[in-house]
Amino acid sequence: MTRGRGLDRDGCFVREGSLDRVSAPFAPVVAEFRARTGAHFGPGRLHSSYLFGSVPRGTAVPGVSDLDALIALRDGPTDADHAAVRAVEHDLDTAFWQVNGVGILLFGVDRLRGERERYDLGWFVACLCTPLGGPDLAAELPRYRPTSLLARETNGDLFRSLPGLRERAATATTEAERTRLTRGVARRLVRTGFTLVMPRWGGWTSDLDESAEVFARYYPAHAEQMRAAARAARAPAAYPELLDALLTGLGPWLADEYLAVHGAKAAPPGAG
Length: 272
Description:
272 residues, alpha+beta, Beta Polymerase, domain 2, 2 domains, 4-stranded mixed beta sheet, 53% helix
């Protein structure tokens, strides 16, 4: 088997991103995010903050890419905390032409380092997030390899998500709603398709086109569908008819194949 990239000599994930890779156009957006969240939560509640996605990877395109960030609080977030974060997202997106959207994830630190999230959110923070401020949670988490366990825990719940996504597609009334949903669904399916084959490929990539091509090596019959999803993830407005096809064709097949190969992720507490 040819080993993929993204791993060190021991076969463990190499952490993505670096603050050194944040390009000059995005530096003021990152600085404002850090200032706004620090001022709102203060050192008493803010444990640490992180960037992820194209900005810390150094591949962000000004005016096209979004800013993705994660905040870890010392205690669990409240409804007021989530509302405050939504306001920061809106304000940054409005104030800076460089970003085409801002997304901030908000979690309590105990959840991020807890056993239940060890191979999902824990892996995400340790391997795909770039520390911006505060103690780095990666120091408390294990080193990770591209295993079937990791595949199951990160994307083994697609089958649970599909009914809700189909309902959202059916009730979307504006072009903007469908465009946002197409982008989200396409990204989800490409990343799920990649993690389906990740243990066999033996590596990691966050690049959507490469993810689709790696998937295509193992499932050539579904290669063109996955390539179309990767294209829609980048330019969803150009593919207005693709959303329904993804949710009724590629999505259900992928969910079934994932269950057959890796099994189902455990349902969250309280889930029916």
